[in-house]
Design a protein that fits this description.
single chain, 5-stranded antiparallel β-sheet, 10 helices, 39% helix
């Protein structure tokens, strides 16, 4: 009951993974048949047959020596089978490693291609989406390319309170090629992002409906009065009329406060008819979000790096702004930011899902930039003085911090 030389050669080639497909199936069937016999052979070898004559067992005419030889041959087959499995496993792992390396190279080329490259462009789009849709909020992102054509943008959300830059939470968004996932936001303060509230000046309560007082409420002014004098805060202001950017900046010029963000009118459908609350304000920060197209370069140099890459060194400057002027430049930057979001609309839908980009751009291009609200920060006693301004109808208190202020 010995194995033929031909079958032994097939087993060897099977273990090495070089046996043709048809012969491989034949060998596997033979191995399966031998496996079925193994239990019987083990029972015969280990069972109660020791008292029998060595010349014959169970009337089969097979001697114990022949059974031992069969078991030895079965052991050889088993080792060959495990060797084949080991070789196959190594082959699969090698293929996976090769795919990982190749995909990593393709990922690096995809996100690193262009000037600016795609990683920088996507970072600009996400930063812009946060800037126009989240009052007094900015995000600073770093990019990290992965295998299998993915990239992560990870950073911190920041807001301004007094003279301090305050970290508000963690922010991350994943990309598969040019498709963005829903951002993951972890707020340090769970109430963050929902404290602000703006009211549109076109809201006109009907006489006798009990809402007349909402045109100029007093709730948060009382809260502001109770804060210690040695504190600073952010305040969300709503106006009783629409302002041009320059006109609004002029109103803040002589005040010991810092404007942070301006809410822009985007049309009649942007506020709730029954309360005048704007649920999803759109606007722009006092410090503009400058883009690659805004940079005025004074130095540019390219050097080849690797097979496909290059190293670019450049320097330049962004436009200078008058602290309480240059409204036209600020407005144009705002519109350019919205147009970038329109160009990368699939990313904007994930990172600023409540903005109607096309409708917003169309309305502002037709009617101009008109402002109905602002976020400001400064000492509590300076914020209290705004209560006497007739153009301010509502105020909501945001973050409060201990004194950290330099007079303007």
């Amino acid at each position: 009951m010995s194995l033929s030389e031909d079958f032994k050669q097939k087993l060897k080639r099977y273990a090495e993974g070089t046996l043709p497909h048809g012969e491989r199936e034949e060998v596997e069937r033979e191995i399966a048949r031998l496996e079925a016999y193994q239990a019987v052979l083990d029972e015969i070898m280990d069972g109660g047959d020791k008292g029998r004559e060595p010349t014959q067992i169970t009337g089969s005419g097979v001697t114990r020596d022949e059974l031992r030889e069969a078991k030895k041959e079965r052991s050889i087959i088993r080792r060959g089978k495990w060797k084949a499995r080991f070789v196959n496993t190594l082959t699969v792992l090698a293929v996976l490693l090769l795919i990982t390396v190749v995909s990593s190279v393709i990922t690096g080329i995809y996100y690193g291609n262009g000037e600016p490259n795609r990683m920088a462009i996507y970072r600009d789009v996400v930063t812009s989406a946060v800037a126009v849709s989240s009052p007094n909020m900015s995000v600073r992102l770093s990019g990290r390319g992965n295998a299998f054509f993915t990239m992560d943008l990870i950073g911190k959300l920041h807001k301004r309170v007094g003279d301090d830059d305050v970290i508000a939470g963690d922010y991350s968004v994943n990309f598969l090629f040019g498709m963005a996932s829903t951002p993951q936001v972890s707020w340090l303060d769970e109430g963050n992002g929902g404290k602000y509230k703006f009211f549109h000046p076109d809201f006109k309560p009907s006489a006798g409906d009990g809402k007349e007082a909402s045109r100029r409420d007093s709730g948060d002014w009382t809260t502001l009065e109770r804060l210690p004098e040695g504190t600073v805060a952010e305040a969300y202001l709503s106006f009783g009329e629409l302002f041009d950017t320059d006109a609004l900046l002029a109103l803040f010029e002589k005040k010991n406060l810092q404007p942070l963000w301006f809410a822009s009118d985007t049309g009649p459908g942007s506020w709730w008819d029954d309360t005048g609350v704007v649920p999803n304000p759109v606007g722009f920060p006092y410090w503009p979000v400058w883009h690659e197209s805004d940079l005025k370069p004074d130095h540019y140099k390219e050097e080849k790096w690797g097979w496909f890459g290059k190293i670019v060194t450049k320097s330049g400057s962004y436009p200078a702004l008058n602290a309480y002027g240059d409204g036209e430049l600020r407005n144009e930057n705002f519109l350019n930011t919205l147009r970038i979001l329109r160009t990368y609309k699939s990313i904007a839908k994930q990172t600023a899902p409540f903005i109607d980009i096309d409708g917003t751009i169309g309305y502002i291009e037709q009617n101009g930039v008109k402002l109905y609200g602002a976020v400001v920060t400064g000492p509590v006693k300076e914020l209290m003085k705004l209560r006497e301004e007739p153009w301010i109808t509502h105020m909501r208190v945001g973050e409060v911090r201990l004194w950290n202020w330099s007079d303007r």
